[in-house]
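Researcher: Next sequence.
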Amino acid sequence: MVDELLGELRIKIIETLNLIDVAPENIEADEPLVGGHLGIDSIDVLELVMMIEKDYAVKIDNKDVGAKVFASLRSMAGYIRENTPDRLN
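Model: Next structure:
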């Protein structure tokens, strides 16, 4: 189930941020999302927050939570799973 969510999030990140030169397999689960090789910045994070709220009904309502959520793809998936247990289990 975790691998399925990771794969889904890889595709959503690419689509949301229009990363045309990035393939899903190029996004490692444990690499930093912000400041990593994808070039994700604070504006991109806002777009990802909106995508997560819309697609998963999960709120990221402060900067401290956001920093933890966007530390890596795995942390993002973990936060989504923890906050939508009825949808992803």
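Model: The helical segments are 2-17, 42-56, 63-69, 73-83, 85-88. The mean pLDDT is 91.
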